[in-house]
């Protein structure tokens, strides 16, 4: 039913009739097509005259199909049934999960996280595709620079302390967090998690879904979890002072605590904790490392071609970021661009990758943390101690043919 068009930036459904036929088949083929095109989200958006289906692929939206309101009603009911939602509820947001087995992908089990929210013209559906592929959850496959990967592995060898993964929504924090969990042998440790929702099911790890609606939130869950004799605790997100304090207390009493936080930089994470009214001496004592990250598009390796920067303004900008980490003149470095080929559907893109900065908390940063130093001072000191910033990490990857200058410049 679904196929790619000649224009690689758009995907269209083959069906053009007013009736999409068997709604079960249509839904399955929609999910299969999402897996085939390696998308991260499916958006079903009602408007006054029709309903649009779009995919998010490598951060960009692609048009997939247009449905009538009658067709949309069938699809909405089908998705609600699969996600164990109330079909008759039209005025409140609902969340659920679908476990889908793809026949086209050799029986691959995929979790689809479903969010439905009422809007003016109906109910908007957003479905996050979570592929249960163990190979995706590996630190060695997350495009960390070797120097950063070594820092992470050294910190993970600690028996206690807190490691935070920072970044905005959609920056790949969950993947990094679960990859760190999978670094450990779950049969050699007692590993427990608090999640909202549980995204990746990992064998032999004790995963718990919090339920704030019944009073079982991160804070109350963490209080109970520390009584379960855990070695490693993963808390889905540090959202408030209470959760932050409990996580820090756990880190200081012999547990390795992993979590995420919404901040724009590694150094900014320290400021965020201070703004939560966490005492600086507790931060410096408990926090071992902050990994800040973003996602950028990977260049297609099949059609990428080298070139040198000739624009003086771009040369100056790139040189300003890289002058402290490389010795070569930027004008002599090969960067890459991709015009597109059959392998990448003429897009020049081959998925996404992370760009990172890894801040290791040590004695030389303690005085700045205890003195509540501003973010720029902490970042400057961290760079003196060898931290590679997100921009520097991205430009190094651009110079090694993994992404483009234009993609990294979007991070400024």
Description:
- The protein is globular and about 65 Å long.
- The strands form four sheets. A seven-stranded mixed β-sheet has the order 11-10-12-13-9-14-17, with helices on both faces. A six-stranded antiparallel β-sheet has the order 5-4-3-8-7-6. A two-stranded antiparallel sheet has the order 1-2.
- The longest helix has 14 residues, at 23-36.
- It has helices spanning 23-36, 69-82, 146-156, 173-182, 218-225, 241-252, 266-275, 280-286, 312-322, 363-370, 375-384, 390-399, 405-409; strands at 2-4, 11-13, 41-46, 51-57, 60-67, 94-102, 108-119, 122-131, 161-166, 191-195, 206-209, 232-235, 256-261, 287-299, 305-307, 335-337, 349-360.
- By secondary structure, it is of the alpha/beta class.
- A hairpin with a 2-residue loop joins strand 7 (108-119) and strand 8 (122-131).
- It is 32% helix and 28% strand.
- It contains 13 helices and 17 strands.
Helix segment count? Answer: 13
Average pLDDT for all residues = 91
Termini separation (Å)?
41 Å
How is the biggest beta sheet arranged?
Answer: 7 strands, mixed
Strand content: 25-35%
The spatial strand order of the largest sheet comes to 11-10-12-13-9-14-17
Helix content: 25-40%
Please identify the structural class as seen in this structure. Answer: alpha/beta
